[in-house]
Amino acid sequence: MPDHAPTLVTASASATATAPVPALAARAARTGSSPVRDILALTARPEVISFAGGLPAPELFDAEGISAAFRDVLAEAPRQALQYSTSEGDPALRAAVAARTTARGLPTGPDDLLVTTGSQQGLTLLATTLLEPGDVVLVEDPCYLAALQIFSLAGARVVAVPTDDEGLDPAALDEIAAREKPKLLYVIPTFQNPTGRTLSAERRAAVAEVAARRGLWIAEDDPYGELRFEGEPQRWLASFPGAEDRTVLLGSFSKVMAPGLRLGTLRAPAALRRACVIAKQAADLHTSTVDQAAAARYLADADLDAHLARVRDAYRERRDALLAGLPGALPEGSRWNRPAGGMFVWATLPAGYDATALLPEAVRHDVAYVPGAPFFAGRPDPASMRLSFVTHGPAEITEGLRRLRTALGAAVGREAA
C-alpha cells in the first residue's frame, strides 16, 4: 500500500473516541466550600473540644418529646404523614408558627408562611426569585458564610456594609445603598452569626427607613432570637415602619427544637411568597411531610417554652464559662464581646496574629475554633475568630480554653525561635 494512502477509520475505532465533558457552570466554579463545614470534618474526632461549629447541644434535645410526636403521628395518620404534601406546608404547623410569631409581636396568619427545608432553603428560594446575575446584595461585614455561598451561586454581586460593636452601621448602609442601587439587604439583627451582636431598636428603625427610602428588600434571618439569656427582646425589623411590605422573615426550628428535622419558615408579602412557592415546587416539591406533622404535633402536645427555658439556662452557663476563661486563654491585648444570647462570641487577637495560620496548631492540641477571615465579604480581619459556646458543657469549655492557651503559646514560641 502506498505511503500516501488514506487511513480508514472503522466504526469500532471511532466509537472509542470521546470528547471532553462540558465544564462546570461558572456559579459552581466560583463558589467555594464552607470553611466551617471543612473544619467540622477535620475536627470530628471525639477527643477534640470544638468551639468551631454552631451545633446545638445534643444532650439538650427533647428526644423523648420529639419521639412521642413521631410515634403519635405515625400511629394515628400514617397514610397522610407518609404521603406527598402541599408545597406551602402542613396547615397545622403553619398555624402553630403563626401563633408563636404573633405572640412575639408580629401579627401573622398561617397563609403568610411557607414551610421550608431549613431556613437555609428559605434564603435560597429568596435568591432564586429575587436576584438576576449581577444584582447587588448588601450584607453585614462579617456575614453568615452560607449566605455568601447562596448569593454567589445566584450570580449576585455582594457588597459589604461596615459594622461596629453594635452591629450594622445604618449611615454606611444609606451611603452604600445610594451608590450601589442594591436589590436586597441580608441581615441577622439578633445575636448575629458570626459576631453575636444585636442591633438596637434605634438602628433597626434606621435600617427600615433606609430600605423604604432606597427601595430594597430586606431578608431578616432570625435563627437565634428565642435564645436570649438577658435583657429585653427586640422587635423584628419586619415590624418597623417602612419595612412591613419589603421584609422577608426567615425562621428556623434548628436551634429551638432539633437541626436534624431541617424545618424552617419563610414569612413574606403575598406576591413574593407565591414566587417562592413556585421555586420550592421546582426545588423539592415540599418539605418532609412526616417531619412537619411531627413538629406540629410536638408544638401542640409539648411545652416548647419550658424546653427553651432549660436550653437558655444551660447556654447562659456555658457562655459565662467561656467568657470567664478567655482572659487566660487568649494573648494579652485580645478583645471579645459579651452577647446577650445566641451561640457565638466574636474575639480578635492582637495585631500581627493570624487566626487561620494558628488553627492547625490548635487542632494538634485537640481544640478548634473558626477563623474570622472567611466571614468577611470585604477586607478580612485575619486576627478575628468565632467561638461557639453551646456544644460543650462548662468543664469541657474550661479544658478547651486550657488547650487553646497551650496551642497559641506553642505557635508563638515556635515563630519566635
> End-to-end distance, in Å?
75 Å
Elements, N to C (H/E):
HHHEHHHEHEHEEEHEHEEEHHHEEHEEEH
The stretches of 5 or more residues where confidence is low (pLDDT under 50) are none
Individual helix count: 15
Largest sheet: 7 strands, mixed
> Globular, elongated, flat, extended or rod-shaped: what is the shape?
globular
- Secondary structure class reads alpha/beta
Question: Which strand order does the major sheet show?
Answer: 2-10-9-8-7-3-4
List keywords for this structure.
417 residues; alpha/beta; 4-stranded antiparallel β-sheet
Can you lay out the helices and strands and say which pair or pack?
Layout: H1 11-16, H2 26-30, H3 35-42, E1 49-50, H4 63-76, H5 78-81, H6 91-103, E2 113-116, H7 118-130, E3 136-140, H8 145-153, E4 157-161, E5 163-164, E6 167-168, H9 170-180, E7 184-187, H10 201-214, E8 217-221, E9 247-252, E10 264-267, H11 270-283, H12 289-301, H13 304-329, E11 335-336, E12 344-348, H14 355-364, E13 367-368, E14 370-371, E15 384-388, H15 394-416
Parallel strand pairs: 1-13, 3-4, 3-7, 7-8, 8-9
Antiparallel strand pairs: 2-10, 5-6, 9-10, 11-12, 12-15, 14-15
Helix pairs in contact: 4-12, 6-12, 7-8, 7-11, 9-10, 13-15, 14-15
